[in-house]
Specification:
The protein is built from five helices and five strands. The chain has a domain at 1-84: Rossmann fold (3-Layer(aba) Sandwich). A five-stranded parallel sheet has the order 2-1-3-4-5, with helices on both faces. The protein has 122 residues and is α/β, with parallel strands linked by helices.
Length: 122
């Protein structure tokens, strides 16, 4: 079963995405900050990471820099989620897809489906 890593410090948002994705047939892992997320990725590679940008301990910017610098993790797709930053600016700077909060869950599911389908077929 494809696995999605949700890296989000807001427990309500994290839990909602977890329930939504599990109900859509995905296995999930959740992390309250980027440091935990990076550690989890070394134990199990997700087909995609849903990454909040503003978090304590390790924010999305630092998470992405560490991910790209790690040969084991650099190829895992990431979609960032942001309420503060302009999604297009983040997408260009970090070279990833970015959705604004509140998240359009149909669009989120489409991003997850696309990434996880590619992994299953790959």
């Amino acid at each position: 079963m494809p696995c999605v890593l949700i890296v989000e410090d807001d427990e309500d948002v994290r839990d909602f995405m977890d329930v939504l994705l599990r109900g859509s047939g995905y296995d999930t892992m959740t992390a309250a900050n980027g440091a935990i997320g990076i550690e989890m990725m070394h134990h199990r590679k997700p087909c995609i990471v849903l990454l909040d940008m503003m978090m304590p301990v390790m924010d999305g910017w630092t998470f992405r820099a560490r991910q790209i610098a790690d040969p084991e993790l650099e190829g895992i797709p990431v979609v960032c989620l942001t309420a503060i930053f302009e999604p297009q600016v983040v997408a260009e700077r970090l070279k990833l897809r970015c959705l604004s909060k509140p998240v359009d869950f149909d669009r989120l599911l489409a991003e997850v489906s696309s990434a996880c389908r590619a992994e299953v077929q790959g």
